[in-house]
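Worked problem 6 (solution included).
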Amino acid sequence: MITEDKVTEIFCMADDFCKFFDTMVAKYTLKPTGKRNYHRNSVMSKAEVMLIMILFHDSGYRCFKHFYLEKVCKHLRHLFPKVVSYNRIVELEREVVIPLALFIKKVLLGKCTGISFVDSTPLRVCKNQRIHIHKVFKGIAQRGKCSMG
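Solution. The predicted structure is:
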């Protein structure tokens, strides 16, 4: 599990990113004309929801519900003072999927060190039954060949 200092650091980065992202979205999206906005602001910020999702993927839990109810609501309550119900956090996840993907891509993605690992499992290119309908390796596929050569 990530230390509390690292959690605070990730939260600060996520909060700064969310502020920047929200200003860009407000600047470049179309404004509704004449319609009233019935959307209520959430108690939890987008950065908190993003942080919970990042912590879930770093934890060993397989079920988000158990992670949220057991770990976040009980043991990490001091880090998230305004927790919401499980149903509400699932609704809030939907709103932060795109900002989370952009945040991970732009901020949290590591740099390539020049060493890359490639899975070298051979994939059969031409099975005799599928020779005439195979489209992926069309033109280079032959009988008995695999993706390794």
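Discussion: The chain has two domains: 4-108, 117-149.
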